[in-house]
Amino acid sequence: MDTIVPRNDLKKIMEVGLAAPSGSNKQTTSLIAIDDVQILNKLHSVVNSSICETAHAMICVLTKRICSYRGKCYNIQDYSAAIENMLLACVELGDQSCWIEGIITDSDNIRRQMAKIVSVPDENELVCFLPVGVASEPLTNLSKKVGRKRAWFNEFNKDSKEGNL
Length: 165
Hints:
Keywords: Oxidoreductase. This is Nitroreductase. Belongs to the nitroreductase family. The chain has 165 residues and is α+β, with helices and mostly antiparallel strands. It has a single domain (7-133), classed as NADH Oxidase. The chain is built from five helices and three strands. Helix 1 runs antiparallel to helix 3 and helix 2 packs antiparallel against helix 5 (110-117). The protein is globular. The N and C termini lie far apart (42 Å).
């Protein structure tokens, strides 16, 4: 790990994450930035995936299920908005990241092992993490469907060839 992520960058990334909109302002999202090499190594050994082994920092995203209006809970929307803000901030600061959720929420419950390493209290759930650092290889854009197949004006129109994005 030769290029560290400045702690100031991690603070800025977390600040914009916590500034994200929150359903009924319940603010159900919490964050833990990890820049200690020993803790990162423990987390990497639990995750056991090459997808994050070169990351010089990590942000664990926690949620707390707090219901509001008529029993509605917006914690998934809350942490999703926070993550999107943080991903954009990473790029703005010259770092790279990605949203890692599936590999830690499978039946093997890697997230619980991760939560234990970083002392997450029982009332919070570690739902994903963002590895943060300089990309080890050039990034390639994933292929996306063209806008005209996914966005329309005034009505859904899967056959439209004009007037779309």
